Amino acid sequence: MRRPWSAPDGRGAEFPDQRAGRDGAGTTVGGVIKAYAGGEILAEVVRSGFVESRHHGSVAVLDARGELVAAAGDPDGPVFPRSSNKPMQAVGMLRAGLRLPESAHLALVAASHSGEPEHIDGVRALLRHGGLTESDLRCPPDLPIGEEARRDWLATGRGKEPIAMNCSGKHAGMLLTCLAAGWPTVDYRAADHPLQKQLRSTVEDLAGEPVAATGVDGCGATVFALSLRGLAGAFLRLVEAAPGTAERTVADAMRAHPHLVGGRGPERDDTRLMQGVPGLLAKGGAEGVLAVALPGVGAVAAKIDDGSRRPLGPVVVAALRRLGVDAPVLDELASGATATVYGGGEPVGAVRAVWAPAR
Question: What is the reported pTM?
Answer without folding.
Answer: 0.90
